[in-house]
UniProtKB/TrEMBL annotation:
Phylogenetic lineage: Eukaryota, Metazoa, Chordata, Craniata, Vertebrata
UniProt name for this protein: Interferon-induced transmembrane protein 3
Alphabetical GO biological process terms: defense response to virus; host-mediated suppression of symbiont invasion; negative regulation of viral genome replication; response to interferon-alpha; response to interferon-beta; response to type II interferon; type I interferon-mediated signaling pathway
Assigned GO CC terms: plasma membrane
Keyword terms of this UniProt record: Membrane, Transmembrane, Transmembrane helix
Length: 111
């Protein structure tokens, strides 16, 4: 038997006339702000019409920097701009790819 167990057995459980109180600690959960860095990097490397992918990547990095500092409002603003630029870069990249396939086929069929 350990020394502490022996003392509890001999002395008994502590008797405290005061009521037990509990304390609740509210831990604020961090708001997740997507910074779209991977999407921006993809658009920069593969679909970069009018440098929209590179500009979106710049805004994504700025969003990540603001998030690391703790400025969630600034991070959300930069992330929103990066998302919009990524959408436009993706749409224009897909359209340009389709046109680069369709136009030569139409020219080839004309001859």
């Amino acid at each position: 038997m350990l020394k502490e167990e022996h003392e509890v057995a001999v002395l008994g459980a502590p008797h405290n006339p005061a009521p037990l109180t509990s304390t609740m600690i509210h831990i604020r959960s961090e708001t997740s702000v997507p910074d779209h860095v991977v999407w921006s990097l993809f658009n920069t490397l593969f679909m970069n019409p009018c440098c929209l992918g590179f500009i979106a990547f710049t805004y994504s990095v700025k969003s990540r920097d603001r998030k690391m500092v703790g400025n969630l409002t600034g991070a959300q603003a930069y992330a929103s701009t990066a998302k919009c630029l990524n959408i436009w870069a993706l749409i224009l990249g897909i359209l340009m790819t389709i046109l680069l396939i369709v136009i030569p086929v139409l020219i080839f069929q004309a001859y």
